[in-house]
Fold:
Amino acid sequence: WADVLAGNGNGILITQNDLNSSGSSSIRLVGIYVQGADGVTISNNNIGNMNNTVDASNYTGIWLATGTVNTSVINNIINGMASTTAAGRGIAVSSGNNPANILIEGNTINNITTSYSSAPFGIYIFSTTGGVNISKNKVSTLLNSNTGGYGARGINISTGLANSNINVINNTVADVKCTGD
Structure:
């Protein structure tokens, strides 16, 4: 658990990393995880070849978790997430803050597939999080092949807030398929 304090982690830059190994060196659960930080920039990273066939957990390319505020996720590529035991999430935000002041812009999220009963997500905002701007992202080729499952979601907003101040502007979502739901 990270302390959620104003200015905690201010100025963190996570940029130009190649997290795209395959085979036994591939990432199993989360490519980039940030929790309790105030002022992080995550940009120009390449995350992919994630293959989770072991855990019944949601696995994620980039996850901004509890207490993360004033953060930008810009121009990252998340490509190739596959599982038979979980549902992938390209970018997930569960800050729990309103406003969180989070920018998700210019990312490419592609090829997230599962045969699990839960839905894969391109971009997923949840957990009473508000104050998020989602723009100019390209989300494509999401597939849930489970015939009794919960489909697939390109961009999903599920905050439970009456006034979340979330803007979804000028994104491209294509080729989102499922055999159930």
